[in-house]
Amino acid sequence: MSAPRKSWTESDVDLLLGGFRLRLVSESRKLLEHVTSVMVPPCETAGHLPGADWTVMVEEADEPDPDEVDAVFSDRPVVVLPYGGPQLAVVAAGDGTLRAMGHYRPEVATAVIEVDMAGRTTRVVLPAGDEMSIRWADWLVRVFFASRMLVSGWHMLHASAVAVNGSAVLFLAEQGGGKSTLAHRACTELGAAFLADDLVLLGPGRTVVGWPTRVSLPEELVTGTAAAGVGRRRIVFSPADYRALLNGERSSPVPLGAVVIVAPGADADAYAPAVERVDSLRYEETVALDIPAQRLHTSDLLGLTGGPRPAGRSVPLPRELLGGVPTACLRIGDLRTLPHVPVWEALSELLAPLAAS
């Protein structure tokens, strides 16, 4: 790996989560603030201490020669991650080092990533002045933590989550089934603290970590009115923009307190949600755990942060993680009414113990 520039005036921050410690180093305060705005929480920050598991160093430079970039992406296999994510091509690898080129999004300027396994360091050279490329830094941080946590006893669930008085409430549903709507309404109507819109990690001690992803909400929840003559339009927010919308902080990891399963109910009143307490989560567990694209997106496929390779499909949740957790099924006759039907009255028996604890 080539050495970083000696003219740096370096700044750094250590990020801690799940028993792992990552050091982020950059000459740019803007970049460090960007990463912490995405990753804190769930991460905690700490001063520079010995013993970081890995270091990510980020700098800016001119974009690589276009002919070299074209040759690399034309002649080598390209890893394309889901959800329109990064595209990566390995330039060289061997003797514990790796050099790759990548586009964070198609047609975006090229970044260079160099890995030194022995030095437990990843160096990222971003094209100077390219605003989109700054997101390489928080993506690598997420890959570092998720890849390690998922092989050390944590489980990834497709769920939204909020914290009510220090306890997490998970909302489980199929894609487009109302998870984001309920999480947002809980924050704005109940004063809950936001944990996650789409993805959580559930780990030892039933700890719930809200994973930072973009937040996608029905337009009517944001503007108060739905556009006429079209389907349900959604507005997408970055983690930082959604925090600003809520005018508050996200919640740090908290213990699991309750689970709400959102399900369509053909026989349910469209404007009066029905709630039933349930003892089994088997089907909902299967749906919530069946997220191979997200596992791929958060896996260290090329070893860019020295992490373990993907472990394949997730394993079933141990019974002790969800056994005995208060759970209710919220049945909605028409999901289009979910932004404004009186759900909290229906869920009061489930949520009241959390609010009072």
Relevant terms:
357 residues, alpha+beta, Rossmann fold, 2 domains, 9-stranded mixed beta sheet, 11 helices, 31% strand, Serine kinase, P-loop_NTPase
Describe this structure in words.
This is Serine kinase. With 357 residues, the chain is of the alpha+beta class. It has two domains: 11-149, no CATH class; 155-356, Rossmann fold. It is built from eleven helices and 20 strands. The protein has helices at 29-39, 66-75, 135-149, 179-190, 219-223, 239-246, 282-289, 292-297, 319-322, 343-346, 348-356, and strands spanning 11-17, 20-26, 44-46, 54-61, 78-80, 87-94, 97-103, 110-116, 121-127, 155-157, 160-164, 167-172, 193-196, 200-203, 207-210, 215-218, 234-237, 254-264, 274-277, 327-332. The strands form three sheets. A nine-stranded mixed β-sheet has the order 3-1-2-4-9-8-7-6-5, sandwiched between helices. Strands 10, 11, 12, 13, 14, 15, 18, 19 and 20 form a nine-stranded mixed β-sheet that branches. The protein has a two-stranded antiparallel ribbon with strand order 16-17. Helix 1 (29-39) packs across helix 3 (135-149). The N and C termini lie far apart (53 Å). The model is unreliable at 1-8 (pLDDT under 50).
In short:
The chain has 357 residues and is an alpha+beta fold. The protein has eleven helices and 20 strands.
